[in-house]
Amino acid sequence: MNSSNPVIRKRRGGPRACLAAFFFVLGVLLGLLPARPARAGADEDMRAIWVVRQTMTSPERIERMVRRARLNGVKTLFVQVRGRADAFYRSNVEPRAEALDDTSFDPLALTLRLAHEQGMEVHAWLNVFLIWSAEKNPRDPGHLANSHLDWLAVMPDGHSVFGMTRQEFNQSIVEGMYLAPGNPAVRSEFLDVVKDLLTHYAVDGIQLDYVRYPSAGTGFDYATRAGFMRTTGVDPAWMADRPEYIKLRYGPEGVTDLARRWAEWQTASVTETVREVRAAVDSIRPGARLSAATISDLDAARGRNRQDWIGWLNQGLIDFACPMIYTPDDRTFHKQLERIMAEAGGKRIVAGVGVYDQTASGAARKITAARRMGASGIALFSYDAIESEPSYWQAIRRAYLALE
Questions:
Q1: How far apart are CA 159 and CA 162, in angstroms?
Q2: Of the candidates 127, 165, 161, 156, which has an alpha carbon nearest to the alpha carbon of residue 145?
Q3: CATH classification of the domain holding 171
Q4: Would residue 67 count as lying in a domain?
Q5: What is the pLDDT of residues 216-262, one digit of tens each?
Q6: Are the C-beta atoms of residues 358 and 28 closer than 8 Å to each other?
Q7: Which residue, 137, 170, 187, 257, has most beta carbons within 10 Å?
C-alpha cells in the first residue's frame, strides 16, 4: 500500500463544514453506484474502504471512523492490524505496536464491537512478508526484525535486507525489510499469527497484503536455497554468481529450464502461504472470507513478485481479490482491469481505487468504470486520506454525478 498524497490540496472550511461535506458526499457516492446483476453464489456488491493503522491508535479515532463509514454507506472495513510484524490487537504471538501507548486499549476489539453494532463487516488486514520500513529498528527485542535476522530476504550478492539504506531499498525496488517466503519457519510464524487472531476475534475476514516477493532477486537466504537444492540439486545462487559454470554443466537448455523451475519454486512458496491461511480460516472460523490486496499488473505480479493471485482465485484459495489499481491514468486503469476481469473468469474482483494520487474527477471516473466493467465492488484507499481531506469528496461527487 502507498499512503503518499501529492494531489490533494489544503483543506478549506471549518471542521463542522468539512464533516458535513464528508457525511453527505461519500453517502451519495457509494449510494449511487449503479446496480448490476449478481452472479450465482455472489454476495451483493461490496462497498469497502481500507483503514490504515494510524487510525487504529486511539478509541476516539476508531469511533469517529466507524461512525463516518456507517453514515456514508460503507459496508466493509479492511482495518490494518498487522502493519510491520506488530499487533494492533492483543496478540499472543507478536509484540504490541509501538504506536499504542495505552496498554488497556484493544483497537481491533473496539472496531469489531462498534462496526458489528452497525451491521458492518470487519476484515483484519495483515501485511505478510514486509515487517519493517522505519529508519530505526523496532524497540522490542522480540520483534522479528531483531530476533530472526536469519529469516530476512537476501539479495543475490549475499547481502541481507537488514541494514540496507533507504537509497538501497529504492534502487532495489524493495519497500523495506522482507522476510523470505521460501523459508518454512517464516510461513509457520505467520500462520501462528493468523490462528491466534482467528481464535480470539470474531473477524468477518482476513485480507493478506504484501503476500509476495518484493522482487524475484531476493530469494537467496540459506533456507530458501537449501529448499531448492533439495528439489533440484542446484543452489539458485549459482545461477546469479556462477552463470558460466551453470551453462557449462547444464547447457543453454538446462539453464533455461533451471530458471523456469526456480521461478515456479518461488511462486509456489508464496502460494503455499495462502493455502495454509485458507485452511486455518476454514478450520477455525468457517464462513469468514479470505482475500488479498494484489499487484494489478499481472505480468509484474507473476514475474517480479511471484504472486500468482489469479491462480489463487481459480483454486478457491481466496474468496475475492482486491487488485490495487492505483493509477491516475484512465487508460492504464481500464487496460489493467479489463485484463484482470478476463483472466478472473467470473471470480470476484473488488477493484482497488486510490483516492490519494489523482484528481477527484479521475477517481470518480475509475469508480464508475469499474462497476460498469463488472467488478464485484469497490475498495477505496484509504479512509485516512478522506478523513484529512473531506473537501476532496465534494469534488468527487460533482464529477461522479456528471457521468450519470
A1: 8
A2: 161
A3: 3.20.20.80
A4: yes
A5: 888 899 999 999 999 999 999 999 888 898 999 999 999 999 999 99
A6: no
A7: 187
